[in-house]
Amino acid sequence: MRSEKPLVIPIFIPHSGCPHQCAFCNQSIITSQSHPLPDADFIEKEVNRFLEFKGKRRQVQLAFFGGNFLGLPQEKIVDLLECAKQLVNEGKIDDVRCSTRPDTISESILGAIKNYDLTTVELGVQSMDNRVLAQARRGHTREDTKNAAGILKAYGIHTGMQMMVGLPGDTFRTALETAEAICRLKPDFMRIYPLIVLEGSVMTRWYRQGRYIPMELSESVTLVKELYKIFNQHKIPVIRMGLQASDLLQDPQSMVAGPWHPAFGHLVFSELFLDRTLDEIEKKYPMTVPEQLILTVHPASHSRLRGDKNHNMKILQSKYPRSNFTVKTDSRLGRETIIIS
């Protein structure tokens, strides 16, 4: 049975707490916001607005995203957590999560806020290759990530990690090595983002000067697919692949270049299904493939099997031109299962 997802109420704090701007970052575009730190009134209004969509979900999390939460001055962190604590006491939310840089995690800061309701921290790891991190002007090292992971685990805090592909100096091999290194740290979940060149970022200048060439969409999807497989093998859930869609992100004036797609994760899962289907056909019919093939999957996986704009079915038909393919669904199957008959 699938675990119930909480209602996550995002409060964005663009660039707040960040010691500098990374080469790839224009956080005000990514979060569609550019205002300063939210106050208690704003947070309460956002919580009340989101609670209208709670439905049957039992858990509600307040999430401070978009900046470097634990890099804020300590008094600001406490002010925001005090606001959250009041909402917990009122029964409106259950706990708090945040995103932050690995080099902001310390015994002192976690000790100072241990009596608040911060239960989940997402680390902006991006890469575990120090050379890649330096080229991206990230300002932290793989050692900072390893240290942060250890401290968070010691405090019993649910830990997520964010990885970015397509960074300057990164390669297919170094990305896979980053995934393996992250797995050794045993995070509770992952997000994987392809690098999108955004207007106002340092990367935009490098791109226009010819110093940076972004990944093609197909190349990025294939790489993220391989990363997903690594995390899946280690039983680490990948909760998102690709940036979330927003009106501003889909504005061509803000997106300069890069492998953007509004359903990037769907493309990854579709390619996984295509690989699995081809493997199953070759295993079951090593010599001669029948003229009629029935592919059966869970109803929720139907679109993933077919692929974006029927892409997978076109590839199957091209590879096996003498076979006719029929897709059926069966709710008794697992969502990643495919039966060939």
From TrEMBL:
<dbReference type="Pfam" id="PF16199">
    <property type="entry name" value="Radical_SAM_C"/>
</dbReference>
<dbReference type="Pfam" id="PF04055">
    <property type="entry name" value="Radical_SAM"/>
</dbReference>
<keyword id="KW-0411">Iron-sulfur</keyword>
<keyword id="KW-0004">4Fe-4S</keyword>
<keyword id="KW-0949">S-adenosyl-L-methionine</keyword>
<keyword id="KW-0479">Metal-binding</keyword>
<dbReference type="GO" id="GO:0002926">
    <property type="term" value="P:tRNA wobble base 5-methoxycarbonylmethyl-2-thiouridinylation"/>
</dbReference>
<feature type="domain" description="Radical SAM core">
    <location>
        <begin position="1"/>
        <end position="240"/>
    </location>
</feature>
<dbReference type="InterPro" id="IPR039661">
    <property type="entry name" value="ELP3"/>
</dbReference>
<dbReference type="GO" id="GO:0005737">
    <property type="term" value="C:cytoplasm"/>
</dbReference>
<dbReference type="InterPro" id="IPR032432">
    <property type="entry name" value="Radical_SAM_C"/>
</dbReference>
<dbReference type="InterPro" id="IPR023404">
    <property type="entry name" value="rSAM_horseshoe"/>
</dbReference>
<dbReference type="InterPro" id="IPR006638">
    <property type="entry name" value="Elp3/MiaA/NifB-like_rSAM"/>
</dbReference>
<dbReference type="GO" id="GO:0003824">
    <property type="term" value="F:catalytic activity"/>
</dbReference>
<dbReference type="InterPro" id="IPR007197">
    <property type="entry name" value="rSAM"/>
</dbReference>
<dbReference type="GO" id="GO:0051539">
    <property type="term" value="F:4 iron, 4 sulfur cluster binding"/>
</dbReference>
<keyword id="KW-0408">Iron</keyword>
<protein>
    <submittedName>
        <fullName>Radical_SAM C-terminal domain-containing protein</fullName>
    </submittedName>
</protein>
<dbReference type="InterPro" id="IPR058240">
    <property type="entry name" value="rSAM_sf"/>
</dbReference>
<dbReference type="GO" id="GO:0046872">
    <property type="term" value="F:metal ion binding"/>
</dbReference>
